[in-house]
């Protein structure tokens, strides 16, 4: 029991970072210091979508209604909506929605422009509305922790406020005497309205959902139905200050983004349950691991941030190889696990000249530093080498080329530009921290000067060799 509780605490600490979508380097030698800040590029899930739909509005509470009107019939109008949807979490989002439609109410369908009888009035209302809706995913919010099955149906609840503009028309008894009864402008205090309801979504695939939705709209206006301003017998049938209507729609949602999954369809409880199983029994074969575990590190590929973990390496809950001293050399290869040191010396520090503070191994400094895949960011583990390089450059009588390189992935053109950015970043860092600007020149050589030329293509080599090719190094001129 205690072991299960400790496992749950461990997963609780690891899961927020996992769900936040932080990007972790996939290099074998990368450590936990290579966790990058959250950006749009490092997200794990899509969280934007666009929804469109159409349906039928029915006035339910007003002087003239659409449901079971004076003739015992239902009068159907039409409506349409489009919304831009943003998922904040797996269970909550915000929608900016535009609605347009027309309601029909009273004793007859006003498209005929005819009502007969003594007091058989009818009306129609054309409306436009803009609103902000909160979106609660009840299926994710209330999902049981032991429910490991995938789900394709989701119940959503919506509620929000906005601004409403409309024109209401009244058809008095007789033919073709329809008049504009009232017009409301948007973005006024009196034009505020609210709506709330529920929708049932079905996931067609990773890009499209369909949804049936029923909303109840509170207009906050007694003139919306077109019964008439101050018309005795027309506007006094119901004693209320708001004409309200139901709006039933059928719509489709298109999920934007490059990722396979949308945040609203992600179930974090299922992820917790699986990770607890892994911690309690790593030998157990769980079917919930749909994509397998290619590196056999005990973390399912669905949430493994490092799919090429070397055999025998210890990993954290996200599948990233541990690096206790944060020096960029994982513990499996680090000969000095608790003391930071460069990759070239297997994670152990070089001896220093105690009188000058400058590292005596000039060759190591000239070999430079390494970079993450597709990145020109200088890693924290490289700053000690660059600090020593500044002293080395300033003490030398030579000028230096700061040369950027890449591995053999991607095109020659892309790699050339990436190598130039890496060289410029290192040069700027050196100058900013005290290096003599006149002694430095930055050059990008792309994949033309590999430290390990046999890595062409990159798949022929282990990842540590490809990482060594992604470098910035120095040459004396």
Descriptive overview:
With 477 residues, the chain is α+β, with helices and mostly antiparallel strands. 17% of the residues lie in helices and 29% in strands. It has seven helices and 15 strands. The chain has helices at residues 2-19, 138-141, 268-280, 362-367, 383-395, 412-432, 463-469; strands spanning 48-61, 78-87, 92-106, 114-115, 122-137, 153-171, 174-175, 178-184, 192-203, 208-218, 244-256, 369-370, 400-404, 440-444, 471-476. It has an eight-stranded antiparallel beta barrel with strand order 1-2-3-5-6-9-10-11. Strands 12-15-13-14 form a four-stranded mixed beta sheet. Strands 4-7 form a two-stranded antiparallel ribbon. A hairpin with a 4-residue loop joins strand 9 (192-203) and strand 10 (208-218). Helix 1 (2-19) packs across helix 3 and helix 5 packs across helix 6. The radius of gyration is 33 Å and the shape is elongated. Residues 1-38, 273-279, 281-286 and 352-360 have low confidence and may be disordered.
Topology:
Blueprint: H1 2-19, E1 48-61, E2 78-87, E3 92-106, E4 114-115, E5 122-137, H2 138-141, E6 153-171, E7 174-175, E8 178-184, E9 192-203, E10 208-218, E11 244-256, H3 268-280, H4 362-367, E12 369-370, H5 383-395, E13 400-404, H6 412-432, E14 440-444, H7 463-469, E15 471-476
Parallel strand pairs: 13-14
Antiparallel strand pairs: 1-2, 1-11, 2-3, 3-5, 4-7, 5-6, 6-8, 6-9, 9-10, 10-11, 12-15, 13-15
Helix pairs in contact: 1-3, 5-6
């Amino acid at each position: 029991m205690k072991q299960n509780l400790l496992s749950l605490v461990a997963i609780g600490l690891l899961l927020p970072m996992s769900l936040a979508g932080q990007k972790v380097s996939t290099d074998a030698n990368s450590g936990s210091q290579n966790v990058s800040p959250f950006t749009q590029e490092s997200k794990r899930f899509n969280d934007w979508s666009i929804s469109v739909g159409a349906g039928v509005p029915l006035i339910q509470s007003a002087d003239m209604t659409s449901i079971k009107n004076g003739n015992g019939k239902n009068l159907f109008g039409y409506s349409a909506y489009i919304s831009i949807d943003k998922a904040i979490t797996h269970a909550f989002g915000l929608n900016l929605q535009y609605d347009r439609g027309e309601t029909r109410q009273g004793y007859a369908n006003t498209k005929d422009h005819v009502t007969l009888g003594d007091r058989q009035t009818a009306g129609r209302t054309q409306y436009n509305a803009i609103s902000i809706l909160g979106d609660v995913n009840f299926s994710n919010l209330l999902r049981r922790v032991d429910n490991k099955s995938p789900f394709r149906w989701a119940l959503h609840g919506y509620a929000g406020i906005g601004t409403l503009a409309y024109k209401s028309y009244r058809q008095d008894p007789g033919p073709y005497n329809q008049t504009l009864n009232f017009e409301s402008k948007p973005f006024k205090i009196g034009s505020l309205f609210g709506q709330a309801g529920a929708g049932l979504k079905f996931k067609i695939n990773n890009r499209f959902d369909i949804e049936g939705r029923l909303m109840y709209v509170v207009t906050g206006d007694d003139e919306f139905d077109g019964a008439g301003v101050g018309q005795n017998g027309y506007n006094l049938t119901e004693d209320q200050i708001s004409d309200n209507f139901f709006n039933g729609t059928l719509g489709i949602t298109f999920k934007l983004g490059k990722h396979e999954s949308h945040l609203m369809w992600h179930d974090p409880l299922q992820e917790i349950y699986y990770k607890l199983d892994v911690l309690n029994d790593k030998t157990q074969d769980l079917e919930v691991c749909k994509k397998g575990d290619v590196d056999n590190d005990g973390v399912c590929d669905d949430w493994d941030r490092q799919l090429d973990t070397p055999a025998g390496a210890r990993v954290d809950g996200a599948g990233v190889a541990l690096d206790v001293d944060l020096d960029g050399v994982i513990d499996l290869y680090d000969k000095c696990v608790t003391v930071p040191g460069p990759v070239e010396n297997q994670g152990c520090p070089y001896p220093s000249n105690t009188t000058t503070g400058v590292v005596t191994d000039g060759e190591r400094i000239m070999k430079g530093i390494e970079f993450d895949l597709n990145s020109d960011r200088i890693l924290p583990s490289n700053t000690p080498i660059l600090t020593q390089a500044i002293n080395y450059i300033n003490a030398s009588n030579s000028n230096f080329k700061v040369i950027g390189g890449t591995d053999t992935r991607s095109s020659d053109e892309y790699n050339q530009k990436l190598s130039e950015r890496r060289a410029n970043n290192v040069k700027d860092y050196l100058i900013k921290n005290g290096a003599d600007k006149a002694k430095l020149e930055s050059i990008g050589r792309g994949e033309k000067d590999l430290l390990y030329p046999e890595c062409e293509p990159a798949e022929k080599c282990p990842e540590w060799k490809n990482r060594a090719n992604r470098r910035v190094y120095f040459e004396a001129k």
